[in-house]
Prior knowledge:
The chain is of the alpha/beta class. It has helices at about 30-45, 100-110, 130-145, 175-185, 200-210, 230-240, 265-280, 310-315, 330-335, 360-365, 370-380, 390-410, 415-420; strands at about 30, 55, 75, 90, 95, 115-120, 155-160, 190-195, 215-220, 225, 240-245, 260-265, 285-290, 325, 345-350.
Amino acid sequence: ANGGKLLVALDLPDYTRYAIPVARPASERHESTRQLGKLLRDVFRRNAPQRNFRYFCPDETNSNRLGDVFEAENRCFVGPTLDADDHVSANGRVMEVLSEHLCQGWLEGYLLTGRHGLFASYEAFAMVSASMTVQHVKWLEEGIKLAWRKPIASLNILLTSTCWRNDHNGFSHQGPGLIDTVLSKKGAVARIYLPPDANCLLSVADHCLKSRDYVNLIVIDKQPQVQWLDMEAARRHCARGASVWSWASNDDGRDPDVVFAAAGDVPTLEIVAAAWLLRRHAPELRVRVVNVVDLMTLYPREVHPHGMDEASFAELFTRERPVVFAFHGYQRAIHAIVHGRPATERFHVRGFNEEGTTTTPFDMVVRNGMSRYHLCLEALRRVPRMAGRAPALVTTCTEMLARHEPYIREYLEDMPEVRDWVWSE
């Protein structure tokens, strides 16, 4: 009943060994969760003597690009096996069954008895066991008040196959609601991370696997995606929780005309691409790009222990400049988090609007008004002195949006200008 007394810390490998080399931002695309799968494989290997780590997932381990774990461990199945079965044994420590309730319930019991684990799910279907997440949070909120109850390993939830990239599944698989569920819980326990690339994901995962008495929600997609930061930059960024990406900005450290902010992998792509377009077509507009990896840093400090003080918040977002914010989840979440900050009416949030279908990646951001072209037009609208001063960019944005739907209907893929975009100075 007091599993923390039995807890043995995981023997974790150096997560930087799994880094993707990034010579310059946005020049290559990789599957970010693939790197996490390699790290988890070695977590299994290094902790084999203790047998105190398990991975829990519906039948999606390979789909979520985490299949490298099968180089070290098997799926657990205690019934009769066939020769055709793939990595199955009675003593396997990968718990894979198509029931989110079972997977999360097994993990919660495993943690409460002093062991460690990770639950991975398609994003939309984590809502199947959302009430279990809530109950575990509540148990932790009360348990940490008792001095005799020893800390246990955190409940780590990884959401992938996200709402923005369900190219083959569609609207039924598009729902970022667990973010809202965890946001509603007390800061003493709840954590939400939105790493924008593989190296940030590795840094976040290392932190979460070492943590105690938290519910850590990590959200990142499994599809090939742009890689932004080398490992050292990613480590610093994750330690801060949110930071200015000066290489993507053109404010030269001065007061910007507009702040572009993003939380989430796809929002980050659209924000940086929008800043790139503005740099080329409206260079007189000073743009600051801010990326948020630890969502709770946006809270005031009195609300969450990770929250920024007012001076730090103003250092990122200024005190009065308009902020165009692209967010992985529902817009209302950002408005609720920044409530109480200076001039919150200047935050203009774009996010998931319950618009979706089986379609191309870029069509999802267009449908939800979060494309790079929508973001450029929003920035121009919010800076009065830019009224009528960037007609070529306005024309480009409106024409590209007009071209988009006929193109994807004819070719079943996104326009080359979008699909093949990379960052350049």
